[in-house]
Amino acid sequence: MKKAVLKLSALVLPLAVSSAVMASSVEQTKGSFVDKFRQLDEALPTPNVYRSAAGEPAENYWQQQVNYDIDVKLDEKKRRLTASQTIEYKNNSPHTLKYLWLQLDQNIFKSDSIAEMTSTFNGKTLQGDPQPKSTKLSLGQLRRQQFMADNELGYQIANVKDEDGKELKVTVVDTLMRIDLNEPLKPGKDVEFSMDFAFNIVEEDAVGARSGYEHFEEDGNDIFLLAQWFPRLAAYTDYEAWTNKAFLGSGEFTLEFGDYDVEITVPADHIVSATGQLDNPSSVLTSTQRKRLEQAEDAKRPVFIVTEEEALENEKEGTNKTKTWHFKAENVRDFAWASSRKFMWDAKGYHQGGKDQPLVMAMSFYPKEGGDLWKKYSTESVVHTMEVYSRFSFDYPYPVAQSVNGPVGGMEYPMITFNGPRTDLQEDGTRTYSQAEKRFLIGVVIHEIGHIYFPMIVNSDERQWTWMDEGLNSFLDGVAGREWDHTIPWGVEPRDIVEYMKSENQVPVMTQSDSVLRLGPNAYTKPAAALNILREVILGRELFDFAFKEYAQRWKYKRPTPADFFRTMEEASGVDLDWFWRGWFYTTDHVDISLDKVYQLRLDTKNPDIDFNRLRDIEADKPMPLFVKRNKEEGKKLWVEENPDVTDFYDENDRFTVTNKERNAYNKFLKGLEPWERKTFERAIKEDKNYYVLEFSNLGGLVMPILLELTYEDGTKEEQYIPAEIWRRNHKHVQKLIVTEKGKNLVSVTVDPRWETADVDVENNNYPRRIIPSRIEVYKREKSKAKVSRDIMQDIKTELKKDDENDAQEQQ
Questions:
Q1: Which of 25, 295, 446, 521 could share a disulfide with 500, CB 3.0–4.6 Å?
Q2: Mean predicted confidence (pLDDT) in 275-291
Q3: pTM for this one?
Q4: Whose CA is closest to 710, among 742, 738, 746, 744?
């Protein structure tokens, strides 16, 4: 029996195939098909008893624990730290360890460190000239060179001994130190050892570091930010064993959790902020300060523990006496602190989920240079961050969350962050700040406090995968930031990554941290924008938020890898996302979906009396040829018009005239249909719907959902979402049939109308193509200036000005 075939009157173009072959252990040898939806099994590590295929810690997951007892002294005048520490290392792994590796991050400043010896010169010279022209060296670079030459930097380590007082052999390898144990450390056992260490603190503004001191010439005081300050155990993991890669600067840290007991001796008039809870407030704080802390617990706005007036008095004094601040911290992966007599200190209690819930003290420490900017926004930003991040992950688990102002623009450690923006001193003695500085402070506090969640608690390996903490945190700080004020440009929208995505100077996100070419867009913006798209476009908020929270809670106080994140997001959301991870994280493809053509089709009725009339109308609608148009304008008559007596059948009937032969064929066609076929066919003819075929090209290589906005003749609009899987059989070209009701005629189609997918060329997203709006500026052409030579004969007569005269001229 002959089946009904519905003819769509339009040109059907053959699908083009790609010539690219995806690198894979599965080899495509026939044709040019590229499977953008191939599973990531070949790229991800095989699940095992430590990490499951679901992306969660498996039954035998383990990690080490390291506890520190440190006594440290700050020599303010020499800007030097001296300390002794006792370390307890618990071997929870199934392996016997004959040695331990420690990180010596301060050694990065030594002149023979790998980081220093491999630093490159970025100045430009004129290549190819017999005598190259001069290049440039900034005063900042000269300052750094001079500081490094004038100071002995890096650790001095002594008295490395086991708990019995026996010496331990040590071997220093750049920013790492191996300690050979006197007895192998078996699984389930622990070892204790001690050491003394000291180093000269770097001037942060001179060297450009993550910590150091800042000197204030006008009052003679310093702010000390101390991080990466003690020899710390390198991580020993199930996926890499010892993570003993040298510290080169970009790749940050991967560390073990443990408990800290730290005594910090500083000048008696200093105020100290640190990881952990202050254990001896009665020894270092006045009764007034302790009372203010109690008041701050339930205050609506931050309460000053040390007021600005008190901080200003401290600046003037100076003392030879010392105080020891004692801090304890449980289950943290690092410890940092700050100290200065310049600090004012405010605090506000945050009760998570209500008054009966655990109290967190949000606190800020800053000098007078912080001004109203810090008084208004620092501590409030800390609280806002915890409110948002806890919703996406888990309740903030520590007793304090702190923001400290100093020379570091932004850096994070457990319970404490360093943040840089300040006010500007005006001639009348007042302090103001720009809108940019306000936005910078709010943004950096949210970002750095957010890092206490990722990676200080969800303990990813920053040395290997910067994006796992910076990218995830940038995504969440974008959520928190836009909930603070969405008019501030937070830099996490898909449109913010377009220029980078189409650039040539980039590497895949899954690149080791120190090899990334452009760290900001690669490790921060691109993964943040990708997660934003995953949440808002692909999964939707409900599925994404559930899966992301599941990831955070699974890996709280544990060490996830990228595979654990990818697998958890898939397993918890119930959506196959391998294509998404592959495109966004493993390649440098970009999004560029072009809407090339839109065909308007109409279903043939098979009835010759209807279809032939339609064909006649189509022919009549064609533009009149220019030859015919001009002949008519000139009044020229056709031969057949001048000789009407010479006619035949074809002058009365055109090629669209219907004959009974066609009518008989139509009737035979109808009789040959099964009842259900005839019913279906006649209904389709009666409804007379519009059929549109949209033809798309994937020019960027990155497969993505196709977001459509359809505009109709009656002024109404409709949105359609086409999943990314439409590209699964051809990632270069696809066609999509869209059917609308009779009278619902399309007038235009736009792909990604709200710029939600990071499409790099929105101008090929419109059909019909739109006129591109832009701007033009009028300018006056300047005459070219010839190079001015020195007129020494005249210039030598110039009178030498005094310093005060130069100052007066500059002020004018």
A1: 521
A2: 97
A3: 0.90
A4: 746
